[in-house]
Amino acid sequence: MSLLSIKDMSVDIGQYSILHGVSFEVQEGGVFVLLGRNGAGKTTTLRAVMGLWKPSPGSVRFRGEDISGLHTSDIARRGIAFVPENMGIFGGLTVAENMVLATASGKFDASRLERVYTLFPALKKFWDKPAGALSGGQKQMLSVARAIIEPRALILIDEPTKGLAPAIVDAMGEAFREISASTTILLVEQNYAFARSLGRDVAVIDDGRIVHTGTMAAFDADKDLQDRLLSLSAFQEDHE
Amino acid sequence: QEDPIKIALVHGTSGSSFAVYSQQSETGFQLGLEYATKGTMKVKGHPIELIFKDTQFKPDVARAVLAEAYGDDGALIAVGGTSSGVTLGLLPIAEEYERILMVEPAVADSLTGKDSNRYVFKTSRNSSMDSQAQALALSPDENLYVATLAQDYAFGRDGIAAFKTALEAKGAKVVTEEYVPQDATDFTAATERMFNALKDKPGRKVIYIYFAGGGDPMGKVLAMEPARFGIELSTGGNILPALATYKRVPGMEGAIYYYYEGYDNAVNAWLVEEHMKRFSSPPDFFTAGGMAAALAIVKALEESPSLETDDLIKTMEGMTWDTPKGEMTFRPEDHQALQSMIHFKIKVDDAVEWAIPEKVRIIEASEMDIPVGRNNQN
Amino acid sequence: MSAVVARAGGVFWLPVVLAVIAFVLIGVPSSWLTLTVAGLSMGLMIFLMASGLSLVFGLMDVLNFGHSAFVSFGAFVSASTLAALSGWLTSGSLTLEVLALALALGAAVAFGLGAGWAFERVIVKPVYADHLRQILITMGALIVADEVILATWGGVPLAVPRPSFLEGAVIIGDSSIEVYRLFAVAVGVVVYLGLYLMLNRTRMGLLIRAGVENREMVEALGFRVDRLFVLVFMLGSALAGLGGAMWAGYQTLITPDLGAEILVIVFIVVIIGGLGSIQGTLLGAIIVGLMQNYVGFLAPKLSLASNMILMMAILLWRPNGLAPAAK
Amino acid sequence: MKKGTLTVKAAALVIWALLLFAPFLFQDVRQIEVAARIAVFIVLVASYDLLIGYTGIVSFAHTMFFGVGAYGVAIALKHMGAGWGPVLLGTAGGVVVTALLAVAIGLLSLRVKAIFFAMITLAAASVVLVLASQLSGITGGEDGMTYKVPELFKPATKLFTDEAGKVVRLWGVQMNGKLAAYYFVFVIAAVLFWAMLRIVGSPLGTVLKAIRENEGRAEGIGYRVVAYRTAVFVIAAVTAALAGSAYALWLKYTGPETVLSFGIMIDILLMVVIGGMGTMWGAVIGATALVMAQYYLRDLMEVAAGATAELPLLPELLNPERWLLWLGIIFILLVYFFPAGIAGTIIDKGDRKAGA
Amino acid sequence: MSQPSLSTSGLTIRFGGHTAVNDVTVDFRPGELTVIVGPNGAGKTTFFNMISGQLLPTAGTVLKDGIDITRMAPSARAKHGIGRAFQLTNLFPRLSVLENIRLAVQAQSGDGWRFFTRVGRLTELTARAERYLEATRLEAVAHREAALLPHGDQRKLEVALLMAMEPDIYMFDEPTAGMSLDHAPDVLELIAGIKADRSKTVLLVEHKMDVVRALADRIIVLHNGELLADGPPAEVMASQIVRDVYLGHAGAAA
Ligand SMILES: Nc1ncnc2c1ncn2[C@@H]1O[C@H](COP(=O)(O)OP(=O)(O)OP(=O)(O)O)[C@@H](O)[C@H]1O
Ligand SMILES: Nc1ncnc2c1ncn2[C@@H]1O[C@H](COP(=O)(O)OP(=O)(O)OP(=O)(O)O)[C@@H](O)[C@H]1O
Ligand SMILES: [Mg+2]
Ligand SMILES: [Mg+2]
Q1: InterPro entries in the record, alphabetically (chain A) (predicted)?
Q2: Is A102 an 8 Å CB contact of chain C?
């Protein structure tokens, strides 16, 4: 049984119809990458899984249970963490307070905290500073750190590398690889090189529809497909 | 069947907690009509038709509804309003339409002052009466030292000025005048100043409180125990619900506009009995005032040679008529109704919800020297 | 220099500074004592009424003009309860008197809880994060609530009976200290401590502030923001009710306008205290209480505008209020 | 033009047309009072919309400026006697004081957080209210003051007379001073409203919207935000003061309750919201709707209470004394269901349909 | 070499105890595109903020064509030809795309105080705004509210606003962050176009190495608020210290 199974999910926002019957399955373990151009519907898909948009009709099943009607907080309590596109930092709270809210008990697991510190030293440095004063990249780090401070079953991550320096991107890639051994990651990325290095499975979304699913290896091998779906060729050479 | 005579009652009946006063006044007015017409509701064969207008306690709305009453509805006489500001705004409308406005229950002296006009009559008491009667109730002499506490606006200052004049005419001294913001709730500072000003004075020491609205300054001053300096309190009478707070000052003396047990006459007897019957409570201030206005109007209509406004004005100038407060007389110059007040002493009876302002004596209109606001005669 | 002051408690010394200056200016120790105690207790009573607003305004960023209606309701509910139990108050038994008082305050609090719940569900919920609509819709609610009060209790002033053990004053030398004021100080301090512990020893304060900033994210972290908000709102309204009840006991003659009359002062206190901090609100309330009394004694002419001037001065000095929550 | 916008403009223009012909269409005294009040409040509300709807400034001092304008004329007329000189002098005085106050408040405090600014204006407004009631020698205190207006506006003045010297009637309407006063108010209101329309449609208007939307970025692309805010605050204040002057002339009475009280501030807020913020035309609709409600909801309820007298409970609820209760409820429902106000909602719906 | 159009000397800012930018002295010349790189939190955005006026420095000066603008308000700097696009999209959300751009054009032309002319009458303004609309390929969405645009289009509008200001100094803060590969080339082309003008000074913060390589005339590196390196791209990217603090493995692999 797959961990997350999305069947024929549609989302309307106000008068606009954004997703038209999205379906894909995320297997337990590893990194599942969702790719697509700007405005394709990636963020909307993640938000719908999280219950922040109400999908209709269709279903979202997590470990076999239909979670599509549940309240966001109940979905979160089933072990799903969310790193939103806009980072969702509480700017008025300190870094520490941001982190505390991401734990269920209000206490940190020492080893996990240590892990976060090594991954993102900046957070340690600014631990008692208001999160609103962090730099763009530091906010991004805090957002990811909140998702990994507790053990989760599934992490939904929306463009984590946006605005991060190359060294940090590398470190984050390492971290994801490590985390994905125990936790499934559903990753939305524009940085194809980053996605490719992590992904096991891939889905491509365009104009609110899934236009391709398969393994990362197969997708990476098919340059034509990439070009057609993502206009990747433009900068492909540079990434090589 | 003669044409009806239309009378507009122009009071604030919504938008403020003072609306209850308007209701009392209108109830009193209707009872007054009933009494004066012996239940027929007709004068000289004309049925009386009442028109009710709500000023919403807004002067601009009030002007519009009064103009409407005179202009569109054809009211011959209007009665109102409740607050002085609203009523002040009504005065020019009466002049514009050349119809009579009977002021009741608004209090301010200025309503018969120089901004007023010959179409305005006033049956309600004015602040000068309150203050002078209050001064007389203290039986002032050289041995009396008074500190005053009032709200800091025209009503408070004018009232204290009138009170002071009356006191000082008899040789008593006002040692300090304290004014606090209109919506003040804490009187500690003012009280402390009054204590300091009074405590070392020889003779009788009194704090006079002149206050409109809530806040219960008397209770607050009392809580600071003026008695330890030999200081008494004095304050004017009030409506029944407020009299409940007077239970803490048995024996206190002052003056009150109306208390149902204070007057002994046929009109009042009827009013108290009917009011008890219908509302199972005694009439209050504004009920009596409303009734007085109705009685004045009916008498004027009966005695006037015609229903022309000018004839009515001539009839009413100098007219004397019976009210629950005894006789009243419209002073020809400014159309203020001169009237008596009650000098009371507080008695506490646990069976009664409020403290009883027991009559000491009636202060007759002739004892007070109410300034003439304007002269309508020239 | 300023760092030293800040470490030593900073602005929280302001009331002491005020009191010292006043002592010199007043010159009469007994008057000073009377005024200071009166000011303190006035401050704590204002704090009781302001704390609910501060909680809702500071933490949830909801500007609730309807707050004054809860204060009025609290006053009338407790006054009616006391009136209904007036037999107990005159029975001469201290137990019965305390019980009557407890029931009256309890009734006001219970009413606040219930009304707060309904108010949040019906009125405030649709307008979170929209100040303007909050101002408007709560003003609409205020009109309705005022009318309901008028319809229920009529417009006549209502006398509030007081248990006899709260009457009178303690006389020290030439100064007198009302017993009721001491009682108000006690209640104010207890409420302050309770709030302080709740907000600083639990994650509640954090969650609320985070929820205001980004509600979706708090939910995505697994918390029910809607339930939390309704709880806070109920608490705020209950505090308003309690404040109103205490105020009624102080006023002894109350009218339905009571809430509206203190609304402005309550707003001033919350603002000069600084948003989002209960400490700030307490500080603001005490400063306002003391200022009122000192100015009223020293320069009665100024007392009319003293609060406004105080607020403007403080805002010009510290645009975010005296002790805002760390942002 | 879009359909929704068109509907709103048409509705507003119909209201203006009704106001133009009001003395002839509605020959009752009260209706003229209502019409004049609507005209004045349209200006007041539109100028407030300039602040709150277009620039995003929440101020509680708008009635203060309205009041200063009104008191200017009132004090001049009261202390100098009736005449055009005092009217002009009073208006000019009111405008100057208003402008000074607005510049001072604006420069001092438009930099602080929006909600603090709102509170400062609230404080300033209450100080002025207290002053008005304190300086009773000049202002008439709590009770306000009545005064005489220039001859032309006196009801007894005959604008046109026939051979017999009686007032000419045109379609049954007396050509008297009251009519002159009404048209005076009307023309002033119409001109001010038109001027504000021009402002919101001008480059300045778009800058105001930009400040409302994103102050920092507006500053960043080159607009001095504080200067613009202060400017619009002054423009709105002066307009309100002019409306106040006209109202003082019309009412022949000025007092705290008519031009300064917080109640009027709430009325203005209600009108802006009911009409629709940031639409300017909405001010016309909002002011009309609320003034009509204030004057007629009560009557309507009287009828309704009468009609339902037989039923249980209903008449009690419909008791005309409780009309404010209903106004409050209607208001809540409006804010709830029409957050964009009447005009805003019509524009949204209509334009969307047209666009789709 | 030409005169510097923009120069900072000793620019420093401290937040409490933390020094975000420390004693940065650097000149920028017309016709030159300088890329600023550095780890997250190095102070790049803060450096920009002090040049465009969102933050005032604790010490140091900023000169534009020799004029001291260190303490000017942002609006005054804009008048002096300093233009800035933001890292986090910063638009007028409820105005249409065209209105957004027209506001910038109007600020530049100084028409903002005109209060009695109808906007529609100023056809010249609209025409200019439309030119930038075309340049950024946003014609199709000209009348949509900015808030409803997809992320990529919002980033483009951010750039369009900067272009419409027609500044002398262009400052871009990660203009292509989060942009998919079908959009990014448009923006890079625009920047290349400005650079080609030769009279403009361009400052660009960017983390994508491919972009840096494609555009940079010069690279400066900030680290912990300090100026760590300054020079031609090849030289700077090759230096060991830059590889250590910034590039990590990616640098090693390149
Ligand atoms: N709140 C909203 N209201 C209206 N339209 C919306 C809203 N949110 C998103 N959209 C539209 O839905 C479409 C899909 O948006 P979504 O954010 O899911 O795209 P995305 O794939 O995440 O794009 P990007 O790579 O730019 O983040 C876009 O056209 C966007 O304009
Ligand atoms: N207002 C502020 N208060 C306190 N610290 C601040 C403030 N603004 C920035 N900082 C700190 O200054 C440092 C530099 O931040 P800046 O935003 O300039 O980084 P950056 O180089 O742009 O990073 P990124 O690449 O992540 O955007 C950061 O450590 C940040 O936490
Ligand atoms: Mg997205
Ligand atoms: Mg940055």
Answers
A1: AAA+_ATPase, ABC_transporter-like_ATP-bd, ABC_transporter-like_CS, BCAA_Transport_ATP-bd_LivF, P-loop_NTPase
A2: yes
